[in-house]
Amino acid sequence: MGLLSVTDGLARGVEGAVASVSEQLFEPVIRLGVTGLSRAGKTVFITGLVANLLNRGRMPQLRGAARIEAAYLQPQPDDTLPRFDYEGHLAALTGDVPHWPDSTRALSELRLSFRVRPSGFFASFAGPRKLHLDIVDYPGEWLLDLALLDKSYAAWSEDTLTRIAKRPQAQDFMAIARAEDGALRLDEGRTQALAAQFTSYLHAARAAGYSDCTPGRFLLPGDLAGSPVLTFAPLPAPASTPRGCLWREMERRYEAYKARVVTPFFRDHFAKIDRQIVLVDVLGAIHSGPQAVEDLRRTMADVLAAFRPGRNRFLTSWFNGRRVEKILFAATKADHLHHSQHAALTGIMEALLRDARDRADFAGARTAAMSIASLRATVEETVLRDGVSLACVRGRLMSTGKQAVMYPGALPTDPARILAPARAGAEAWLDADFAMMGFAPARSILKAGDGPPHIRLDRAAEFLFGDRL
Ligand SMILES: Nc1nc2c(ncn2[C@@H]2O[C@H](COP(=O)(O)OP(=O)(O)OP(=O)(O)O)[C@@H](O)[C@H]2O)c(=O)[nH]1
Ligand SMILES: [Mg+2]
């Protein structure tokens, strides 16, 4: 990889410098990275944000909004990527029978452009300037692969086998993996059987709520299905690894997966980010129980470590000295809670990501944390029960289509009450259960000039790129 990546780095450096000079002078571009595991809420966030930037009636906290003369969608800069299906997703969320968009299966990109009235000194004589906001959407499963970039096959195998050994979903795979001798000559049939069994384990683990399901393309292979880069599996290390043995071939394919699949994804879509939002479905994890919370904590730490500059020679060269300037950590789906609990939710997320933030070393970047709902599906309601007033939310259930009022339980204001049992490996929460109902997007008629209802998207936008408007 040595020479290739050096020249690649040089070319990119020159290309990057030319692009950034002309961009800075004429039409600056903000590349917004939307980072989140599968189901974290990326697609709904992008759709809700763009809809509320096109119609800014519900964006009072985005201060620069007053200077936006026009916002419009443009053909995106990358001719080889499909366009993010903004219209389709918005129609799903706000149509006659509103529903959530499908899980994302491939990459797509969108460019939103603004014509902005200049402010300050230039206001009196300069014409409006242009600003582009580029956003990429991708399946959350692929994000996990960033954690593989600096792991060898041996380390990944060992980590994975140790973590999954006790999971019931992994028993079939563990049985054949343990029986395998990696020192024996490669047999393609057995290799395929191992990969297939490991893939079914990954599907079962994901369905059970685990987030640590690598390699991500095993779950969503796209046009790579059946190729050798997707035909490997973790194996116990054999005592010796003669040439042509199964272990060595697995290792070669794992390295090819990193070099040919993960590296380009990271280089093309993450290394160029200026501003980043990290979406975390903390509520979903709390609802699933302590083990899901711990798994989320560890997975996010692994994933965010990939953004640490200097961590890895190759990664550093792609960053080209660029740094993410601002990072917003957002707990999504906050409309499941009454606003009186939002501060507690934000606190839990911050505590949950503390390790990740320390390890990732976001030094130099400004960070913030908040709870958001990209599409608010509920309204708040206070219910009297046994003389106690409960702060609830009301919405339309996905399962029955009927209205329901939910009291999710009280989130502790001390995050340790959640994180400590999770770290200690508790099976269930001791004192409480945290319920979460599947609400469908609300039927609503939007006033002209208003985007769909949300919670704090305006504050999120203000933090992320308000300074550039
Ligand atoms: N109530 C509520 N639910 C939300 C909100 N945002 C997302 N959800 C729920 O979370 C699910 C996943 O959201 P997506 O935006 O599709 O998640 P994603 O990160 O794009 O997921 P992948 O495409 O699988 O990586 C949705 O189907 C909704 O059920 C929100 O603001 N409010
Ligand atoms: Mg998606």
Verbal overview:
This protein is α/β, with parallel strands linked by helices and 469 residues long. The chain has 2 domains: 237 residues, Rossmann fold, CATH 3.40.50; 120 residues, no CATH class. The chain is built from 16 helices and 10 strands. A 7-stranded mixed sheet has the order 2-3-4-1-5-6-7, sandwiched between helices. A hairpin with a 2-residue loop joins β8 and β9. α6 packs antiparallel against α7 and α10 runs antiparallel to α11. The chain is globular, with a radius of gyration of 24 Å. The N terminus is likely disordered. The structure holds guanosine-5'-triphosphate and magnesium ion. Magnesium ion binds next to α2.
Radius of gyration: 24 Å
Largest sheet: 7 strands, mixed
Task: Determine the strand fraction and express it as a percent band.
Answer: 15-25%
Helical content stands at: 25-40%
Number of helices: 16
The N- to C-terminal Cα distance equals 41 Å
Report the CATH topology name of the largest domain: Rossmann fold
**Any ligands, ions or cofactors bound here, and which?**
guanosine-5'-triphosphate, magnesium ion
- Look at the helices and sheets and give the structural class: alpha/beta
N-to-C SSE series? HEHEHEEHHHHHHEHHHEHHEEEEHH
**Record field, number of beta strands:** 10
Question: From the coordinates shown, what is the CATH architecture of the largest domain?
Answer: 3-Layer(aba) Sandwich
Round the mean pLDDT to the nearest integer and report it: 87
What spatial form do the alpha-carbon principal axes imply? Answer: globular
CATH class value of the largest domain:
Alpha Beta
